[in-house]
Amino acid sequence: MKTISEHVLDIVQNSVRAKATLIEVMVDEDKKNNLYTLSVNDNGEGMSREVLEQAVNPFFTSRTTRKVGLGLPLLKQNAETAGGSFQIQSEPGKGTQVRAVFQLEHLDRPPLGDVWDSWLLILLSNPGIRLIYRHRVGKDSFEIDSQEIREMFEGVSLQHKEVRKALVEMMKNNLVEIKASK
Amino acid sequence: MTKIKTLADLRKIRDEVQSKIRLRENSDHPEQVVQVKVGMATCGIASGAKETMKYFMDELEQQAIDAVVTQTGCMGYCYAEPTVEITLPGKEPVIFGFVDKEKAEEIIDVYIKRGELIDGVIPLTFRTIDD
């Protein structure tokens, strides 16, 4: 994966398949300590200890359509290449927390990419899921919550081009405002 | 135009759109619209499925074709990603492989608009991709 946004799109699908109704994606930029953290938390069905141990094994998957599962291993690899670390916690019935830490200034840290498109695509394809995106840079932060957006657009489909454009623009403007790293 | 930054700005957009869509209120029956499902698992994303999906959304809207574009998981054809499943109203789903922007354009022009099959179809051995 070339960007953080592609990882987000990918990892969130795990949550969707785990029947999560609430998914929180967070990017935290800590310039002081040179850290860049991506977290994805969900309230899905979680994993047993045995499955959790296998989760970062590329040759393990809960799917039946193919024999490999590369989403988490690729994220782990990218984090470690960028001088960071990777953690995953999960409990059956409670949900799963994935955390990838990168070095903010590391050459191999993937750029953020068009995270607004990821957010929107996930939202449009999963109407039943509440999706929160939070981006923090030091003391400044920006949050967008699909529940708020859906309530506000009540009766108007988010599929409309004007709406999609407005949402993307809003996210872009806010990320510029808080000076999110590229 | 002022920059969109807050929920209040979005509300204005909603009101604008709301007045517009009354005019073009069209079918709410999913079986009568074209369904486009883009394979968006790790393999698809890594091959650029996000751009493909965006292209379908924008282009179908642009050409005023009634369509629902959604994502789906991996169909097991990782070698041929990005894959796209197209269901024309009243027809069996057809899966296309290696769908970049050019292929997507061809699919819209030839298959969706005229109903003629083109190269790049992945032979189906099952009826749905949901299981």
From TrEMBL, chain A:
Keyword list, A-Z: ATP-binding, Kinase, Nucleotide-binding, Phosphoprotein, Transferase, Two-component regulatory system
Lineage, highest ranks first: Bacteria, Pseudomonadati, Bacteroidota, Bacteroidia, Marinilabiliales
GO MF, one example: protein histidine kinase activity
Gene Ontology BP term (one): phosphorelay signal transduction system
Source organism of the structure: Mariniphaga sediminis
The keyword Lipid biosynthesis appears for this protein: no
Gene3D superfamilies from the UniProt entry: Histidine kinase-like ATPase, C-terminal domain
Protein's name in the database: histidine kinase
Highest taxon of the lineage: Bacteria
E.C. no: 2.7.13.3
Class of this enzyme: transferase
Catalyzed reaction equations: ATP + protein L-histidine = ADP + protein N-phospho-L-histidine
Domain Histidine kinase: 1-106
Pfam entry (one): HATPase_c
Automatic annotation (TrEMBL), chain B:
InterPro entries: Thioredoxin-like_sf
Highest rank taxon of the organism: Bacteria
The name this protein goes by in its record: (2Fe-2S) ferredoxin domain-containing protein
